[in-house]
Design a protein that fits this description.
Layout lengths: L5 H19 L3 H4 L3 H9 L17 H13 L17
């Protein structure tokens, strides 16, 4: 069996390795990661920066438990139906 000349084989291997590592070493695509989403969110804001409305209050565990218990224990009270509400004729 005749082996290839080792010099062209080495050169070809070096080129393949250089091209492979060159493709992996480019971090330029990571620099812009997420910019499209940030730009879209910024363009949809209806108030200028610094004038955002205050944060909406959230419900903690104690308040949620109280609301569920009130819902379970308080009997429902029917609402009155007024003229013109939902097409009801009184």
């Amino acid at each position: 069996m005749k082996l290839m000349n080792s010099k062209p084989r080495f050169v070809l291997s070096a080129i393949v390795v250089a091209v492979s590592l060159g493709g992996c070493a480019s971090p330029s695509s990571e620099w812009d990661f997420g910019n499209s989403v940030r730009t879209m969110v910024a363009s949809q804001k209806y108030v200028p920066p610094g004038q955002e409305p205050p944060a909406i209050p959230t419900m903690d565990g104690a308040r949620a438990t109280g609301a569920v218990e009130r819902n379970r224990t308080t009997p429902p009270s029917p609402q009155r139906i007024y003229d013109g509400m939902g097409g009801a004729e009184l």
